[in-house]
Amino acid sequence: MAFTLPPLPYAMDALESKGMSKQTFEFHYGKHHAAYLNNLNGQVAGKELANAASVHEVMLATWNGGKPGPEFNNAAQVINHTFFWESMSPSGGGKPGGKVAEAIEKDLGGYDKFVEAFKAAGATQFGSGWAWLSVGKEGKLEVSKTANAENPWVHGATPILTLDVWEHAYYLDVQNRRPDFISNFISNLIDWQRVEQRYLEATK
């Protein structure tokens, strides 16, 4: 069976009041995300990889120790985008609470330090890529950036938040002003309840 595109967790126009337009979702989810999925299905058709239990399994199997196979980019982009959509909410924004807030204080020096580091990760990623907040191998939070489709999973970390800084993620809404896009994501879009849930699952 072919892999299928996970549905958005909200309507395409649900984040318009938060600065992310329906048009962006129509292109970003409806065309870019869908194309990664369709390309992956074409790549694995008739191969053993088509029998994998999940796209995540395909992604890890094709990372190949940093020399990724041809299926990796599409599989990773399907995973990365799904994770990105689920990192946002129409009721998102504000500051974190719970255990993840305690971990941000302990591991990163507090919320303001997290914001500074996350903004820097997104703004300084040259070209296309992603900014991440992850639980590292030692169980501590870490902020990182990756190029293209690469992500923390392939390095043994467990992401709990991501921001897509490929140009197609923001150009229709803010043109080339990536820092504005990053600031709006942090202030208005992060689903901290979902991030908390991911943190608890990663550290139990």
From TrEMBL:
Q: Name one GO molecular function term.
A: metal ion binding
**What does the entry list under GO cellular component?**
chloroplast nucleoid
Gene3D superfamilies documented for this protein: Fe,Mn superoxide dismutase (SOD) domain, Iron/manganese superoxide dismutase, C-terminal domain
Catalytic activity as recorded in UniProt: 2 superoxide + 2 H(+) = H2O2 + O2
Kindly list the positions annotated as binding Mn(2+).
H28, H81, D164, H168
UniProt similarity note:
Belongs to the iron/manganese superoxide dismutase family.
Question: What is the protein name for this chain?
Answer: Superoxide dismutase
Q: What is the lineage of its organism?
A: Eukaryota, Viridiplantae, Chlorophyta, core chlorophytes, Trebouxiophyceae
